[in-house]
Write a structure and sequence with these properties.
The chain is α/β, with parallel strands linked by helices and 436 residues long. It has 13 helices and 18 strands. Among the domains are: 195 residues, FAD/NAD(P)-binding domain (3-Layer(bba) Sandwich), CATH 3.50.50.60; 108 residues, D-Amino Acid Oxidase, Chain A, domain 2. A hairpin with a 4-residue loop joins strand 15 and strand 16. The C terminus is likely disordered. Helix 2 packs across helix 9. The chain starts with a strand and ends in a 22-residue tail after the last helix. A seven-stranded mixed beta sheet has the order 6-5-14-15-16-13-17. The chain has a five-stranded parallel beta sheet with strand order 8-2-1-12-18.
Length: 436
């Protein structure tokens, strides 16, 4: 096993988590190739659900991440009038053995990159190496990489793991007729700004109707000043009252105007949206995209990981979460199976049915579906949510989505560990729950 050479394409969350997981499982010949001249620690906020936090804890990273994240206490969902539709505890407050973390993507990537280099050496992450070709034939996989000057190198390896994101070059080479990611006609506006704490100070708030969403949650706190770095996301259909501005480049001032036109009359809890937008220096804008499920991730000793395999809409906090789970399950199977191709097929057999189901659920907005239903049933608002829903109905929607993503409390707290002991090779599948 230690002699196995493993090559990873992409130094995002999926690629770096895979590198760290492989080392923890006993593999020490692991190299990550990144297209950019440096590991990109870009991006705004994201949530890591307890099932993935458990994996990061078992890799020894939880203490470091706790200092750089907010432990999410609750999720609260509202209609545009500020009427509470559904509230639930999160993380340890909900009985999980591990917290839910809200964190800057840049901080998570930096922690994973530092750990990968600590475990595998500084040369384990190679930058300025863009994948342009691959061969998954019987002679073993080969990846062809080029740098920004046009020089190419061919890397022969025992296993090629492709974690190069929603616009994966590897996936396009395996599925040349697929085309670009799909959009649902919704544009996301995103940013961060310091603001007064709202609700518990550790809350995630989601507001919406049947077309629009406004998401707010802290990713850093200043407890003394009762201030938080709030990550916000505003989403609405293209051309929905924006005067066609989604079709042209926009500055921050234009974006603020468009967002306030959509959400200026909404009532986010404890938040002055106008001030929050005014204090946001950089507003990012991009379409909401995902990928259709594909029938196969694995070709010989080549497989896809993270968004390259199963990119989904940002509903239910599953992007980074499922990338971490992919990494750990993949490393476990590579340690458990002496045949590398069999290991990759076992990883796919476990993960692909789950992710196909989760992608479909994300397209219906996962647990946020309760907001759409609330608007459809009571567009003018309500005095008592029990006049709109039975409490059992709301709880069932949330629980069913958690079960689909394998992050329900019972499963996370009780399933066997994916950690591979140095003194033994695992002999049983870690996921004993059947794929419905």
């Amino acid at each position: 096993m230690p002699t196995t050479k493993i090559t990873i394409v992409g130094s995002g969350i999926a690629g770096l988590a895979t590198a760290v997981s492989l080392h923890a499982a006993g593999f020490d010949r692991v190299t990550v190739y990144e297209a950019d001249p440096a590991v990109r620690s870009l991006g705004l906020g994201l949530n890591i659900l307890p099932n993935a936090v458990r994996e990061l804890a078992e890799l020894g990273l939880l203490d470091e991440l706790r200092h750089q994240a907010v432990r999410t206490r609750e999720l609260a969902m509202y209609n545009p009038h500020g009427d509470l539709v559904w509230r639930e505890d999160r993380g340890t407050h909900a009985g999980y053995g591990w917290p839910q973390l809200s964190i800057s993507r840049s901080r998570l990537v930096a922690v994973l990159a530092a750990e990968a280099r600590r475990r595998l050496g500084d040369d384990a992450v190679v930058t300025d190496a863009r994948l342009v070709g691959l061969d998954h034939g019987p002679g073993g996989p080969r990846g062809v990489f080029t740098d920004r000057h046009g020089a190419t190198r061919t890397v022969e390896t025992d296993v090629l793991l492709c974690a190069d994101g929603i616009r994966s070059t590897a996936r396009s080479l395996l599925y040349p007729d697929e085309g670009p990611p799909l959009t649902n006609g919704t544009t996301l506006y995103r940013g961060t700004a310091w603001a007064d704490e709202f609700l518990t100070g550790d809350s995630m708030a989601v507001l919406g109707d049947d077309r629009r969403r406004l998401v707010l949650y802290p990713i850093e706190r200043d407890a003394e000043k009762r201030r938080a770095l709030v990550n916000w996301v505003a989403a609405f259909p293209d051309g929905d009252g924006d005067g066609g501005t989604h079709r042209r480049p926009m500055g921050a001032a234009d974006s603020r105007e468009v967002i306030l036109r959509q959400f200026g009359r909404w009532s986010p809890p404890g938040t002055d949206l106008t001030s929050l937008l005014k204090d946001t220096e950089d507003i990012q804008r991009y379409p909401m995209t995902d990928r259709d499920p594909i029938p196969r991730w694995t070709f010989g000793n080549v497989t896809l990981v993270g968004d390259a395999a199963h990119a989904m809409y940002p509903a239910g906090s599953n992007g980074a979460t499922q990338a971490v789970i992919d990494a750990r399950v993949l490393a476990w199977h590579l340690a458990a199976h002496p045949d590398l191709g069999e290991a990759l097929r076992a990883y796919e057999a476990e993960r692909r049915p789950q992710m196909t189901e989760l992608q479909a659920s994300a397209r219906s907005m996962g647990p946020e579906r309760v907001i759409t239903l609330a608007h459809q049933r009571a567009p003018g608002g309500f005095d008592d949510v029990r006049d709109v829903f039975g409490e059992e109905e709301l709880a069932r929607i949330s629980h069913d989505f958690a079960v689909t993503g394998r992050f329900d409390q019972e499963w996370v707290n009780t399933r066997p560990s994916l950690t591979v002991s140095p003194s033994r090779v695992p002999v049983a599948r870690p996921d004993s729950r059947s794929a419905e």
